[in-house]
Design brief:
This protein is of the alpha/beta class. The chain has helices spanning 92-95, 100-119, 131-135, 139-150, 159-170, 220-227, 234-254, 271-280, 288-291, 298-309, 313-318, 330-343, 356-368; strands at 54-59, 63-72, 75-85, 124-129, 155-156, 180-186, 191-197, 210-216, 265-269, 295-297, 348-352.
């Protein structure tokens, strides 16, 4: 189990009360000249395992997210976290380039991430950028600027890496009695699906459990920009579902038998499904502790999707589990989710407020041998 405290969705605040360690003058940041952080670089680590600090940063199309954690038993405990909507990929699907405003918003967030990593005395990190920087013509130029101004060396993660880390971060939420599950991560610019074996699998290396995977170059930002996200009627919503379904069809044929396996269920991670979970629970304000690990039946999902579809933009913006910054994106996410449900029918879905960052942390700690294997559930 990953032990975490509530994490703000849009601002960067410490996620636990653990005191910030003083940074000894003799301990420099590592990675590049000038004291930078390079992706997944190992340092000479002399501290006891429970005092080590790992960081995972995910710069996506819509969000900039950071987790800092320490090993604990078979998993880890989060000691600091940051999440901010930066919309780095805003307009990329039309212009093919990152805009000046989006880059400035993102740089501000990355400077905060750098300070947090320094404050927590992080000595191993994995820092990745995903679809927005992959798709934009000026993506490499922007990453070079990030390195120059913040010392953060961001790795341009490919889609197979996204699928792998999403699976590594969420697999613990799979029902251990299921033969297999379909894990999905609806992002801002891409959507990953991973068919995972579950039963009798206690291997810490998630690679051995992946039966098939795909990545669609379609996410909530790209779909909302194509169809509009402020005013979405039933016909527009169905058009978004149909486009996603057509893109998903080859993988649905490859993994079509998944739904027939014993105990099969969906496992979703992303702002879309966590939002659905919060609305299902009638939360006035989003609460990660109540949503992460939540089970929803098919009928529950149907009702929440209908509830969101019936809201106008201002109602969505005023909902504590959606908010103004997601109000124009949530229906695009719901359409992608609906396409996945149609391709892989399941009586229930489990919701995870975890994913890429958690997967990167687990992989680094597994490679370092600091995770203790727990007894089978």
């Amino acid at each position: 189990m990953i032990e975490t405290a509530p994490e703000p969705r849009d601002e960067g605040l410490p996620s636990t009360s653990e005191p910030r360690p003083a940074r000894p003058a003799s301990v420099a940041s590592f990675g590049i000249p000038g004291g930078g952080f390079a992706p997944c670089l190992r340092s000479v680590e002399t501290r006891p395992v429970h005092q080590r600090r790992y960081a995972a940063l995910d710069l996506g199309t819509n969000n900039c997210r950071l987790l800092v954690a320490r090993p604990e038993g078979g998993a880890f405990r989060v000691v600091d976290a940051f999440s901010r909507i930066v919309r780095l990929g805003e307009g990329v699907s039309r212009s093919g380039a990152l805009s000046a405003a989006a880059m400035e918003r993102t740089m501000e967030a990355l400077h905060i991430c750098r300070r947090k990593m320094d404050d927590r005395n992080v000595t191993r990190a994995r820092l990745v950028a995903t679809e927005a920087c992959r798709a934009a013509a000026n993506g490499p130029e922007f990453l070079a600027r990030v390195q120059k101004e913040t010392g953060l060396v961001l790795e341009l993660l490919d889609r197979s890496g996204e699928a792998l880390f999403a699976a590594a971060g969420c697999a613990v939420l799979a029902d251990s009695q299921a033969s297999s599950i379909m894990l999905f991560d609806i992002g801002g610019g891409s959507t990953e699906l991973v068919w995972l074996s579950v039963r009798n699998c206690d291997d810490l290396d998630i690679r051995s459990r992946i039966r098939a995977w795909t990545s669609l170059p379609l996410g909530v930002v790209t779909l909302a920009e194509r169809y509009g996200g402020v005013e979405v009627n039933a016909a527009t919503f169905e058009a978004m579902v149909e486009e996603t379904s057509a893109m998903l069809a080859p993988f649905a044929r490859e993994a079509g038998e998944a739904s027939a396996e014993p105990g099969f269920h969906l496992l979703g991670t992303s702002g879309t499904v966590t939002t659905l979970g919060g609305i299902f629970l009638n939360l006035e304000r989003y609460d990660r502790r109540r949503v992460d690990g939540l089970w929803m039946r098919k009928g529950d999902v149907d009702r929440v999707l209908e509830q969101i579809a019936a809201m106008d933009f201002e109602t969505r913006a005023g909902n504590g589990c959606i908010g103004r910054e997601r109000a124009d994106l949530v229906l695009a996410g719901c359409a992608i989710f609906e396409a996945i449900r149609r391709a892989f029918p399941a009586p229930r879905v489990r919701i995870g407020d975890r994913g890429l960052r958690e997967g990167m942390l687990m992989e680094m700690m597994r490679e370092d041998g600091v995770l203790r294997r727990l007894p089978p559930r």
